[in-house]
Write a structure and sequence with these properties.
The protein is of the alpha/beta class and 285 residues long. It has one domain (2-284): TIM Barrel (Alpha-Beta Barrel). It is built from 12 helices and 9 strands. A hairpin with a 5-residue loop joins strand 6 and strand 7 (188-189). Bound molecules: zinc ion.
Amino acid sequence: MENVFHGIRSALRRGDLNGILRRTGRLPALAGQVPCFTLSFDCETEEDLEALPEILDALAAFRIPAAFACIGIWIERFPEIHREILKKGHEILNHSHTHPYHEILNQGRQFKDLSLEEKAEEIAQCHRICGQALDYSPSGFRTPHFGINHSEELYPVLRKLGYRFSSSTVVDTSGKGSGPSLTPTGIVEIPLGTSARYPGALFDTWNFLDSDKAICRDPADFTAILAESIVQLVRQKGYLTYYFDPSALTRRGILRQVLSILSPKPGLRHIPYGTIANLVRERSS
Ligand SMILES: [Zn+2]
């Protein structure tokens, strides 16, 4: 276990680890599992797609398999780089066809304001393109902008297309135990994760680095927060998902540092979404 902390502790800049742990509620856990996490990327912009070769090389170097939430239009326009994701052993999540709302692709309504039929068509269209362009059937979905844009009415739509899981909600660490769970439709929902220092906020690159109200001004703060979360994850034998935008890491030169914090160590494992979905389903049956 000490190995896990080695190198991580050096990234802690505040030093008050016990204070951080006291302030934070329970993380979700998968009973019987070692501390584990799932890493995912949302490929939102052309800049993200341009960052992918660097991301894929670094993931191979650190031996981390990841999930990539991909948009139908981009898959159609740039099939080669998406094929590369699959060739390298990662998984692709259906992230809708046009990602409403999207600065370049779809400046119309938010996903939540679409009718159920329109939402179903967004999902089905991305699914069709994955089949045609990549010869691939995703088994997971992420709602564009997740959180309040997500709704339970999507589960039957996903079920019909043969999906097994969604990762579109945000984890609740208040002790209510909103870890991965089997929904009544049979789809497993795997919430997006938070951080030790800011347990109430989704820990992603948008909220922490890129938005106008970003929590971190210094990227070193971002990596320190990630490192603290991993320490807490290990202590609590918890499970979290991490979601980042590819270009947010490459542009700031922190990709390798982030992956080094997340790289497999004794007592810390990466578990793909599909495996989490199977575990949750087995335990619920
Ligand atoms: Zn997105």
